Amino acid sequence: MISPPTGPGDRHGDRAGPSLRRSPCQGCASTDACRRPPTRPGGRPAVGSRDPLGLDPGHLDRRRPHRGIAAQLPPLGARSQRRVPLAEPQVPKRFRAFQTSAGSLDDPSDVDEDHMAGRADTLHGVSYVMPVLNEVEHIEAAVESLIGQDYAGPCEVVLALGPSVDGTNEVVSQMARDDPRIRSIPNELGSTPGGLNAAIRASSYPIVVRVDAHSVLPPAYTRIAVETLLRTGADNVGGIMKAEGTTPFEKAVAHAYGAREGLGGTPHHVGGEEGPAETAYLGVFQRHRLVEVGLFDEGIRRGQDWELNRRMRANGGTVWFTPELEVVYRPRSSLRRLVRQFVSTGIWRGELARRFGAENSLRYFVPPLAVLGVLGGAILGIIGFGAGLGWLLIGFAVPALYVLFVVVASTIATREGIRTGLWYLVVLPCIHVGWGMGFILGFLKLTRNIAVHTGR
């Protein structure tokens, strides 16, 4: 039976077996009428007892003690005025039991309405997890956006610190001293997936919010995401990556992120209708589902989000996109860092395309094909010019069309400023060529050590 998490003073449900103990409920002081989730000696929830998200305390990472879901929820007197819409008609089958869990599942008239109203006010705890390496420019704004969420449930911020050399770790240490909800752990691998996994294992709450040090969450992000998790039954919920820059160069990069000629116009860049998706930006997860599918693949340095979501979908899960979630993303601040980022992203996308073949969308093959087309056309034109073969000069048409395409796109970008438009003449080809060449190298396994390409 699925039972929601409870706080002191609630009435409960219990189907204790012979090996489980019964104890009087604090709300009704009864051991017969009370139906609290079963416990083992010592007060730990029994394996198999579950909450509305389908979270099994015994199913969480068994390599460390877990405090138990119920103990992490706010006391009854601290309930929020906000009420999560838990009993809507579209709630999936595995959540419907908890709509009537105060009474018999077969007899809805047996439900205690006051009890259910109290349960609706009890909010799940949230763990924010973030890998951090050399992010002194952005880390404070990113963490402050987490602490400033309007979600009323309990929360924690777990930062996995890599070997930063720019003073990032000192800034994090000061923030942790100022706010007990913030804590740091070492990221021994130093990679993004390694840091995410370390932070998830160290987390305490049943909902995990993945955060990037370049991201700033709007105040309503967590509240909307948790409501969407409960409403849809998804394993992962994500929204729009809204890139914003401050300098003309960063604004040009941000424009490319949100333009169809830039990163291809996917829903998590330009928006779209709510519904199931191939992948999601960042992600708000049910923690037990992360554990079930094996967390992030630490052997994949870029594109690990897509690969994790692929496994979730292959195991019957749902990845859900909602345009209500918007996350501000801060682009790379220099051309060198931008090129390095997209070459690394392209290399890993090529590697994933080679590994998983048909599971990749056709849009991932457009940049490498464009690069080959422009390069091939230029080579044919040069050969034709040198050999006096006029018909080969038509090859120049391909790079000429691409240049025209970039100029037109840059003209549109000047709406955000003349300097932004001029930078776009450089930024857009760097994104296309960097990503496309990287894809070719990764797909054909032409890199000596793919693990060094992290995009940092």
Low-confidence stretches: 1-52, 54-120
Q: Please tell me the CATH architecture of the largest domain by its name.
A: Alpha-Beta Complex
Strand/helix succession: HHEHEHEHEEHEHHHEEHHEHHHH
Give me the CATH superfamily of the largest domain. Spore Coat Polysaccharide Biosynthesis Protein SpsA, Chain A
Number of DSSP-assigned strands: 9
Helix content: 25-40%
The chain-level mean pLDDT equals 77
Distance between the termini: 47 Å
Strand residue content: 5-15%
Give the overall shape, derived from the CA principal axes.
globular
Largest sheet: 9 strands, mixed
Keywords:
nine-stranded mixed sheet; Spore Coat Polysaccharide Biosynthesis Protein SpsA, Chain A; 456 residues; alpha/beta; globular
Overview of this protein structure:
By secondary structure, the chain is α/β, with parallel strands linked by helices. It has three domains: about 1-125, no CATH class; about 125-330, Alpha-Beta Complex (Spore Coat Polysaccharide Biosynthesis Protein SpsA, Chain A); about 360-450, no CATH class. Helix content is about 40%, strand content about 10%. The protein has 15 helices and nine strands. The chain has helices at about 95, 115-120, 140-145, 170-180, 190-200, 220-230, 250-260, 260-265, 265-270, 285-295, 305-315, 335-355, 365-385, 395-415, 420-445, and strands at about 125-130, 155-160, 180-185, 205-210, 215, 235-245, 275, 280-285, 320-330. Strands 1, 2, 3, 4, 5, 6, 7, 8 and 9 form a nine-stranded mixed sheet that branches. Helix 3 (about 140-145) links the parallel strand 1 and strand 2. The longest helix has 26 residues, at about 420-445. The two termini are about 45 Å apart.
